[in-house]
Amino acid sequence: MRLSVNGNRKKLFPLQFNYLSWTGVTLTGFLCSLVWVEIGEVPDLNTFQAMIGATIIGCFQALVLSRFFVHTWLWILSTLIAWSLMGGSSFGVMGWFAPRTESIMVRLSTGLMLGGLTGIWIGFWQWFILKPVVSKSYLWILFSGISWSLGLSIGWIIGRILHSITNIFLGEVVGLIFVWILVGMQTGIALSYLLQKSGRAE
Predict the structure, then answer these.
(1) Does the residue 202 lie in any domain?
(2) Transmembrane residues, as ranges (predicted)?
(3) What dihedral do alpha carbons 155, 183, 124, 92 form, nearest 10°?
(4) Considering the entire predicted model, what is its pTM?
(5) Which class for 195: exposed (0-12), middle (13-18), buried (19 or more C-beta within 10 A)?
(6) What are the angstrom distances between the C-alpha of 22 and each of 55, 74, 111, 123, 197?
(7) Which of 33, 25, 179 shows the shortest CA–CA distance to 94?
(8) What pLDDT was estimated at residue 89?
(9) Is residue 183 within 8 Å of 151, Cβ to Cβ?
C-alpha cells in the first residue's frame, strides 16, 4: 500500500508542518478530549475513554500529516490501537491522570519510567505507519520514549507544585497540559528531523 505523499496534497492541505503546528494540534486534541475524558488521580480510565482520547488526538495530528501521507487514517488507527490496549490494561492511560503521591522525587522517577514505557509503546505502533515513508523510522520509537519520559515527569512535577500552591486540583490539570505541550514539542522536533532526513521537509 502506497503511503507516500502526493505532490498535489500540499496545495490541498495548507496547514504547514513544523514542530509548532504539531505541538498545537496535539495540545488542541488533548483539550478537546477533555469534553469526554475526565481527568483523575488514578489510572482508572476505561478502554472506551482511551479510544475517544486517542481518536481525537490522532485526528488532529492527521491534519498536518496529510501533507505527507496519503492514508492518514492509518495514523489515527495506530494511535487508537496503542492507547486502547494501554487503557484496557492495568498500566492505565498516561496523560489523562495525575499520581496521588505528593513526593516530587517519586513523581520524577515514576514519570521518567512510565513516560518512557508509554512513549516506546505508542511509538512502536506509529512506527508501522512511518516505516514505508520515513528513512530511519525506527528512531521514532526512541524519540517518542524520550519525549514522553521527560514530558510526563516534568508535567507531573509542575502539577504537584501548582496543586500545593493553589490547593485545588486544577493545578494537576495544568500540569497535564504541560505534559502534552512538552511531548508535542519534542516529538514535533523529532518528526521534523526524520522528514528532513527523508527529503520530505517543507
Answers:
(1) no
(2) 12-36, 48-66, 73-98, 104-125, 137-162, 168-195
(3) 30
(4) 0.88
(5) buried
(6) 16, 17, 23, 16, 18
(7) 179
(8) 77
(9) yes
Q: How many domains does the chain have?
A: 1
Q: Could you tell me if residue 101 is inside a domain?
A: yes
**Residue 199 to residue 202: CA distance in whole angstroms:** 9
Q: What is the pLDDT of residues 17-60, one digit of tens each?
A: 888 999 999 999 999 999 888 776 665 667 788 889 999 999 99
| Within-domain flag for 123 | yes
Q: What are phi and psi of 21, to 5 degrees?
A: -65, -35
In the predicted model, what is the mean pLDDT of the chain?
A: 87
C-alpha neighbours within 13 Å on the C-beta side of residue 159: 32
With a CB cutoff of 8 Å and minimum separation 6, the contacts of 27 are: 177, 180, 181, 184
Domain that includes residue 72, residue range = 9-197
Give the pLDDT confidence of 126-163 residue by residue, as tens digits: 999 999 888 899 999 999 999 999 999 999 999 999 99
Grid coordinates representing 29 are 486534541
